[in-house]
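Field log, afternoon session.

UNIT: design team B
ACTIVITY: writing a sequence onto a fixed backbone
BACKBONE:
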C-alpha cells in the first residue's frame, strides 16, 4: 500500500482464476480490518471505463481475507494478460476513489510507474506481493521468536499450519497465536506444494545459496536463461533431500528465496529467464551462443557433452531438442554412439565442391557407372585428396546424401534411389 489511496498487487494465476488474497497489512485500504467471518463486503471497481463488482470475504478455517472478482472483471483481466507469460504478468494498481469504490489500472513496468508517481525506491520491497509491509509489534515479535523455537524443537520434519496444529501449538506455548504472528512465521519459511512448511536454513546454508545464485547469474549472462533441471542436478547433493524431493520443489525454493526470474516451459522443461523476455528471444539467444561455441571452440563440430561443458545452464536432452528444432546452421549426427552437432554442409564443404561433384557425376555417366554412395565417396575423396566421408560427413550416410543433394547443380534432375544418386526418369 502507498499512503492511504494506492495499493499495488502483482497479477498471478489466482487473480486470473477470479480471486486474490488481501495481506493483513492492507486490510485497512479496503476498510475490512475488523470484518468477521460471517460478513461479506461488496466493492465497485472501475476498469477500462467499465464499472464492475467484487466481493471481499474472510475464510473461516484459515483467517485469510480475499477479494473475489465478478465474472466480467475476471474475463477482462484474462484477456489483458493473454499475451504475457507466467511470471511476467503486469501489476494491478488500485486507486481509492471514495467509499467502497476503486479505480484499477494495469502496469507492466512497475519501476517506471513508481518513478512517474514519485514513489521512492525504498518503497518497492514493501509493496511486493510476497513481502507485504510488516505491522508486527515488538511484543508480537518476541512471541514469534518463542513460537519458532517450539516449532524447531517439536516439528523437525516440517509443519502444516492446520487449525489442529495451531491448537496444539497454542496449548504448548500457553497462549493463543495471533493470525499476524502465524502469517509472519509462514512468510519466513519455505512452503512445499503439499502445504508443509520448513525453515530455509534446514534446506541449505547461506553459502550454498550464494553459489547457486552466482551460477544462475552466470547462466543468465551467457544465454539469458537457465534450466531448472540443470540447477537441480548440479546442487541436489548439497540440498536437504527430505525437503527438496524433486525439481518442482527446487523451483519453488528458488522462487521463495526471491531470486528474480520468470519461469516458463521451453520444450517440456522449466526455465528461469530474464523477466520481460519472450520465449522466442530466449531460444534465439541459446541457439546463437551454441553455434558460436561450436564454430569458434570446436572448429564446426562438437559432441553434445563438449557443448554443455562450454555452455552451462542446459541439460544434454533439452539442448538436443532446442538445436534440432531451431538451428538452421547445425545438423545432428551420431558418431561412436554419441550425439554430435556440426555446421551444415553449406558451411563446411569447400566452395569449389559443387563443381567437383558435378564433374564427377558427369564422368561416371560417361563410363556408365552408377553413382552409388560408395562410388561417390571414393571418387570424391580421390578428387579432393581427403577422406570425404570422414572429414565432412562424420561418417554418417544421411549427412553425405544431404550434402550431395544440396550441392548438385547439374541440368539433369537426380534423386537418391536404391543407394545411388541417379537421374530421375
Amino acid at each position: 500500500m502507498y499512503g492511504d489511496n494506492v495499493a499495488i498487487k502483482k497479477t498471478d494465476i489466482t487473480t486470473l482464476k477470479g480471486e486474490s488474497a488481501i495481506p493483513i497489512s492492507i486490510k485497512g485500504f479496503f476498510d475490512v480490518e475488523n470484518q468477521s467471518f460471517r460478513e461479506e463486503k461488496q466493492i465497485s471497481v472501475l476498469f477500462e471505463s467499465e464499472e464492475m463488482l467484487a466481493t471481499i470475504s474472510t475464510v473461516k478455517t484459515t483467517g485469510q481475507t480475499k477479494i473475489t472478482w465478478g465474472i466480467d472483471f475476471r474475463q477482462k483481466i484474462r484477456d489483458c494478460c493473454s499475451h504475457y507469460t507466467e511470471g511476467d504478468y503486469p501489476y494491478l494498481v488500485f486507486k481509492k476513489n471514495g467509499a467502497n469504490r476503486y479505480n484499477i489500472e494495469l502496469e507492466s513496468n512497475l519501476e517506471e510507474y513508481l518513478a512517474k508517481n514519485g514513489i521512492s525506491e525504498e518503497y518497492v520491497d514493501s509493496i511486493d506481493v510476497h513481502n507485504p509491509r510488516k505491522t508486527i509489534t515488538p511484543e508480537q515479535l518476541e512471541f514469534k521468536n518463542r513460537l519458532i523455537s517450539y516449532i524447531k524443537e517439536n516439528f523437525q520434519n516440517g509443519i502444516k499450519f492446520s487449525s489442529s496444529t495451531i491448537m496444539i501449538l497454542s496449548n504448548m506455548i500457553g497462549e493463543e497465536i495471533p493470525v499476524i504472528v502465524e502469517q509472519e512465521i509462514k512468510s519466513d519459511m519455505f512452503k512445499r506444494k503439499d502445504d508443509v512448511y520448513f525453515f530455509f536454513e534446514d534446506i541449505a546454508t547461506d553459502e550454498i545459496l550464494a553459489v547457486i545464485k552466482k551460477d544462475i547469474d552466470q547462466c543468465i549472462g551467457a544465454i539469458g536463461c537457465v534450466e531448472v533441471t540443470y540447477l537441480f542436478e548440479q546442487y541436489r547433493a548439497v540440498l536437504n533431500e527430505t525437503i527438496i524431493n524433486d525439481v518442482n520443489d527446487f523451483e519453488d525454493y528458488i522462487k521463495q528465496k526471491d531470486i528474480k526470474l520468470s519461469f516458463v516451459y521451453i520444450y517440456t522443461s522449466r526455465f528461469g529467464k530474464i523477466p520481460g523476455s519472450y520465449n522466442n528471444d530466449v531460444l534465439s539467444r541459446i541457439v546463437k551462443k551454441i553455434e558460436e561455441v561450436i564454430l569458434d571452440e570446436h572448429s564446426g563440430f562438437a559432441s553434445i557433452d563438449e557443448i554443455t561443458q562450454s555452455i552451462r545452464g542446459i541439460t544434454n536432452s533439452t539442448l538436443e531438442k532446442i538445436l534440432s528444432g531451431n538451428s538452421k546452421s547445425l545438423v545432428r549426427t551420431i558418431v561412436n554412439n554419441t550425439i554430435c552437432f556440426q555446421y551444415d554442409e553449406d558451411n563446411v564443404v569447400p566452395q569449389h565442391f559443387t563443381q567437383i561433384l558435378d564433374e564427377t557425376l558427369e564422368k561416371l555417366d560417361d563410363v556408365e557407372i552408377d553413382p552409388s554412395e560408395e562410388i561417390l565417396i571414393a571418387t570424391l575423396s580421390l578428387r579432393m585428396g581427403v577422406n570425404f566421408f570422414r572429414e565432412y560427413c562424420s561418417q554418417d550416410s544421411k549427412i553425405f546424401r544431404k550434402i550431395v543433394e544440396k550441392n548438385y547443380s547439374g541440368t539433369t534432375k537426380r534423386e537418391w534411389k536404391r543407394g545411388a544418386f541417379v537421374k530421375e526418369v
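LOG NOTE: Confidence is low (pLDDT under 50) at residues 120-134.
NEXT ACTIVITY: expression trials, pending approval
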